[in-house]
Amino acid sequence: MDAAATRPPNDELAALAREARWRIVETVAASKAGHIGGPLSATDLLIALYFAQLAIDPADPQREDRDRFILSKGHSAIGLYAVLALRGYFPVEELATFDHGDSRLQGHPDMLLTPGIDASTGSLGQGLSAGAGMALGAKRLGRDFHTWVMVGDGELEEGMVWETVLSAPRFGLDNLTLIIDLNGLQQYGWPAGDADRFDRSEPVGHVDLERVFTGFGWNALTIDGHDFDAILGAFDRVTADRGVSGRPTVIIARTAKGRGISFTEGTYRWHNGVATEEQLETARTELLGATGAGR
Amino acid sequence: MKAQRVVWGETIADLAATDDRVVVLDGDLATSTRADIVADRVPDAFVQVGIAEQNMVGMAFGLSTLGYRPWLSTFGVFLTHRAVDQIRMLVSQTKAPVRIASAYSGLLNGSSGKTHQDIEDLAIMRAMPNMTVIAPADEVEAEAVFRWAADFDGPVYVRVARDAVTPVFEAPYTFEPGQPLLVADGEDVTLISTGVQTSRTLDAVRILAERGVRAKLIHLPTLKPLDADALCALVGDAREVVTVEEHSRIGGLGGLVAEVLSERGTARLVRIGLEDRWSESAPNDFLLDKYGLSPERVADAVLAQTAVAV
Ligand SMILES: Cc1ncc(C[n+]2csc(CCOP(=O)(O)OP(=O)(O)O)c2C)c(N)n1
Q: Which residue ranges does the record assign to the Transketolase N-terminal domain (chain A) (predicted)?
């Protein structure tokens, strides 16, 4: 069950990430509703977690000693579904039911419906508290699993996040890791200046996150969230620290919103959206190559 | 046909252009709620607060103490549930002139699913002292309500629907708070509805007519305060009353009418609304049909659950 021991090579992770990204745009286009930018910025981190880090068993999604993962930025559900499908939790074809009626794949993650989902999310800001509860429970029960939570940088605006940031070190939760998908954009946000009204300033651009988190008693690492070496290196440091420092760790992952597709990358206007036929073709070529054959 | 959210953005931008007291606080959803219309047309009236609904309520209260007439704008569910303590403490108790524009209210929210469906807001908001609770039927009534709210000196909660519905009213329209409105007359069965569900219920009345049933339809834009005498007068001596709402059957319009009828009426009550369970993400038509709120399903329910069936 220890994925870190048998990590696939980085080019394989990259190929999986390209495939997941394709599934994201394709699925949202077919369902005619859903988010694009946030799922695409998180894809590499999710692939690294599910294929190279989490101790999990897709054949036994509820296994007691599994690592926990909470997608606190629940609007990125389709990104998580794509990765779960590739990892074998359910058939890739099932992605086509996303957001339809009577589907296991809801617009936001539903732990009662979808195998592999550890917490229901969708109202932003709540995931880290849920993760702290899981990490605290593991400590009290003497269980060895690790709890991972992913938030968006816009999501950091929610006060509840900071309630947990304040308290988690007090509980000694070195079995809790927060990943910030720092893509620099939210849904609408703040204009960056007068030059271009579509220019947006970073949600937490005015905040020195490393200093804030270390000030609260956390370990903090800043990485490139699209570089598998950097991501896996950070994961290794988290694992090495478990049971040692008594401090939770935050991984501040610099990412690009809409990453991987030319027309979605770096703009808040693709926070959600449905690609046209033509745009889909562009995305397919960019992600899978002209043949569309993929990896 | 225009969506209520667009009417909201345009009307508030209009008001803000001539009234400095009008400010809009956005919870990072301006492109959805259409607060972006205000941001584009009257930038000074637009305040981005971020994804921080509790903070938004606190700031709106603070602004209101300095003479501002702030509008809170985000998905209703994040105000009526997440920031309910702040609304209760800082707005309801103090009678602060804060306006809550509850966007994407009810079941239909662009297939975001149950986390985003606000189907308990009427029950929650109705229970708060000092709160005026309004659910306009269509674009025409919505605009009148927004304009009325601009001058009202107290807290106002308005449901704003995401998608356009077939208009029920024609301009010019003057909103009278608390007044029930007769939108269709008939003697076989009496229906009462609120919000955009009135538009669908009016379609249900047409379907019932095709099946030989003449229904009376009363629209209740204001759930609170309510002119109960006026409502009872419209209900008359009907033996059965059916409420229809895009809300939980618990505590909303059905609850309100049950309170009124049990105090002063004699009619038997049938409540059509969302059952006490969670829904799901899906396109509008699917949801309306599966959860019993499409015109056809409402007509079916009326026939199945009242004496007109015989
Ligand atoms: C409590 C709450 N408020 C508002 C929203 C609506 N919403 C969904 S995504 C989003 C922007 C999120 O931005 P960020 O956290 O930066 O995520 P990303 O850029 O990765 O998509 C907003 C405001 C929500 N889901 N929950």
A: 18-287
